[in-house]
Amino acid sequence: MQHLDLQVIERALQWLDNDQPIWLCTVLATFGSSPREPGSMMVARSDGQHVGSLSGGCVEEDFLARLRAGDFHQPLSQIRYGNDEVSGPKVTLPCGGVLDVLIERLTPTEEHRAHLQTLREAMRGQQSLIRSVLLDNGESTFVEGSALGPRVERDEQAVRIRVGPTLRLIIAGISPVSAACAEFAQALGFDVIVCDPRDDEVATFNVPGVNVEAVLPSLYIEQHAHAATAVVALTHDPRIDDLAMMEAVRTEAFYIGVMGSRKTSANRAERLRRSGGLNDADIERLHMPIGLAIGSKTPAEIALAVMADIIRVHRGRPRHAL
């Protein structure tokens, strides 16, 4: 899940608490090129205010115009954008793709509030759920589910949407690369946390929207890393980087990486075996040198290589397939 989707649910709850009906939109499927993936969400009010997105803007513009005109008053709707061969809005996506969208009209009832609160807690925490929406009446329920598998599945009776913790990036240590990496990660929809025990470094770090913790990264990783977490160490200080790696391999983090040359990485691997008690399987989980080999030199280029590699792993793409 992207951090943007968590913002969608939080705003949806805020509007329901203000006794306003909302329209929760979820991308069900994409065909061809499409700006956002299945499971992406947007919430809107009848006056057109909205949070989140479904596409690059063309779909939202049509949907919000129809919403202000009084459409979508039934509890559940499905709509397809980008295909002139089917009935529906004649909107052509710039990328040439096709987009199926589920639209749920939710009223300010305790049942709907409780449902969205469960969804919010799943995104905030470490539990993965399957959200099932019946297509005949819009009734929605949750069952436990694995974090693995397609985000959306559907048949003639129901849509099943996989929800879980938002993507999280824990950056161990502050450096110029850390700042650039935090900015890239935010743009990619990650919830970003930077940890550093050095008060002087914390005082000078300023990336709006990033949570900064004045704590040893290993302590934070121990309590907050889950299966949707990437952990990167970017200081060149083994007192920070090594401890972060030692703790990260004890978690379910899907990506663990540390900055350094091949020689530095080889020395670190030996040090982690000898002093940290890591075995070969632990060392194999560490991406070091970190990032894709794109010839990066500047902090921004290194951060780009790091985030590209994290996305590659998250999408399940092997290096040789690039």
Automatic annotation (TrEMBL):
It holds the Pfam family XdhC_C. Residues 169-310 form the XdhC Rossmann domain. Residues 15-69 form the XdhC- CoxI domain. This is Xanthine dehydrogenase accessory factor.
